[in-house]
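ARCHIVE CARD
CATEGORY: sequence design from structure
SOURCE FIELD: tokenized fold
FIELD CONTENT:
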């Protein structure tokens, strides 16, 4: 170990195991060192960024040898754009580490008895699995280390791709992305080339000037294709010229929209996309259920794995056709609708009113009369009067955001005391925290990890809980 300025560098450290959230670990003199951007088996010099008494965090400074587990990444942008962080690992090994992460955090944070964890459900397709992707157009290209010193290469370029990790104003210029099937790359490159040929400026996020800003592409398993191009200037002539060009070049687009965004942020929730061609939305399917998806709708981005996730949820609910199911954090109603055929009644609750309107529309689309959706806070809605009107739940399904459930909601679930709770999580760590609280009345009876995002650190997990005897 040597000190270099104020930084501590650990030399020739063997990376021993996977930790969580993409980090691996080593042990040096009894201290656990968490390391980013490495895999077990690598031998590296590590610069410490945090250094506590019992643990430290660091980044690799130099690789002395690479793990035998590594494979060659298939994307030329690997390690630069910040996505698909695990392409250097075989998919089977990714699944192994993700399953290990679920077990580790449930035991370490949950501190509750667990059944054997069921084998993780991996994706049949590990490329082109996303139905939605968003590209950024910007006027500052992210330069590689070897390019920065080259005075002939300027970062002041109009580019299209993804924000560089850690840089809000720099964009990685993408040639081919493997997250979504064609024509997604062709559309992005065509829009980029057309705008440049017309001399239209790309967006400068620091100075908030420029025309071309972002673009969302939604490609459904039904074959429907929606493109929403976001511009920062209300220039009707430019917009119409761009729309005509895109439709002429890509007649497969079923819905083409544009959105004028003159705000300081990229969010669309308070903006109104304008339908230039088509019906303004696309239809996606999960099994035989149809879902209407607009440019601002939330929907699982991996359709085929969403089916697997929802099948597990339905199985864990153990429905016989007589149950009243409460779907908390119901969003646009996808889980409730998916399990509805085996339930007597579905009650969905969600804070976001626009999502509830989408849920009601999706229920109508599927001709369901056994579903009801309510906008508001579960803590306020689910009172004795509500139960008298709609019935107490036999099954609660909860699918919270990454932050997990609010402690008041956990207490509400404990008060309701439904016989079965199915907890769908995109963050096993916060799920484990909530399971620890639910342990007051519930026992965990089944655990099923599902991989929704191959080549990333993310993992979904479904847990079945039953009231203690």
């Amino acid at each position: 170990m040597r000190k270099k300025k104020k930084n501590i560098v650990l030399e020739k450290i063997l990376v021993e195991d996977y930790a969580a959230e993409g980090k691996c670990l080593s042990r040096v003199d009894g201290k656990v060192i968490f390391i980013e951007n490495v895999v077990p088996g690598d031998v590296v010099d590590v610069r410490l960024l945090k250094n506590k008494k019992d643990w430290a965090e660091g980044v690799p400074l130099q690789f002395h040898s690479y793990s035998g587990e590594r494979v060659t990444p298939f994307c030329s942008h690997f390690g630069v754009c910040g996505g698909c962080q695990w392409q250097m690992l075989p998919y089977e090994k990714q699944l192994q580490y993700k399953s290990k992460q679920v077990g580790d955090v449930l035991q370490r944070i949950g501190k509750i008895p667990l059944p054997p964890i069921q084998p993780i459900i991996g994706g049949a397709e590990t490329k082109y699995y996303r139905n939605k992707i968003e590209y950024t157009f910007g006027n500052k290209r992210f330069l590689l280390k070897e390019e920065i010193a080259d005075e002939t290469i300027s970062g002041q370029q109009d580019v299209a791709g993804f924000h560089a990790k850690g840089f809000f104003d720099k964009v990685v210029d993408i040639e081919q992305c493997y997250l979504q099937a064609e024509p997604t790359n062709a559309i992005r490159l065509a829009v980029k080339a057309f705008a440049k040929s017309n001399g239209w400026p790309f967006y400068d996020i620091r100075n908030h000037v420029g025309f071309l800003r972002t673009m969302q592409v939604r490609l459904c398993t039904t074959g429907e294709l929606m493109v929403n191009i976001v511009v920062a200037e209300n220039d009707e002539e430019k917009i119409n010229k761009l729309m005509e060009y895109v439709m002429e070049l890509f007649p497969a687009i079923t819905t083409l929209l544009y959105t004028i965004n003159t705000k300081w942020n990229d969010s669309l929730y308070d903006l109104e996309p304008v339908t230039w061609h088509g019906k303004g939305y696309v239809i996606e399917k999960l099994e035989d259920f149809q879902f209407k998806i607009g440019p601002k709708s939330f929907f699982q981005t991996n359709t085929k794995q969403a089916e697997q996730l929802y099948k597990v949820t339905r199985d864990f609910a153990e429905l016989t056709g007589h149950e009243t199911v409460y779907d908390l954090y119901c969003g646009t109603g996808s889980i409730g609708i998916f399990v509805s055929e085996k339930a007597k009644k579905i009650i969905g609750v969600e804070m976001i009113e626009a999502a509830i309107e989408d849920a009601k529309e999706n229920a109508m689309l599927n001709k369901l009369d056994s579903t009801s959706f309510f906008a508001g806070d579960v803590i306020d809605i689910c009172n004795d009067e509500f139960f008298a009107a709609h019935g107490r739940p036999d099954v609660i399904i909860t699918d919270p955001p990454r932050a997990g459930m609010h402690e008041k909601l956990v207490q509400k679930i404990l008060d309701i005391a439904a016989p079965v709770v199915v907890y769908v999580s995109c963050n096993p760590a916060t799920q484990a925290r909530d399971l620890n609280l639910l342990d007051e009345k519930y026992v965990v009876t089944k655990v099923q990890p599902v991989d929704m995002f191959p080549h990333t650190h993310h993992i979904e997990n479904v847990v079945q809980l039953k009231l203690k005897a």
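CARD ANNOTATION: Residues 15 and 44 are 8 Å apart (CA to CA). DSSP finds eleven helices and 23 strands in the chain.
SHELF: design records, drawer C
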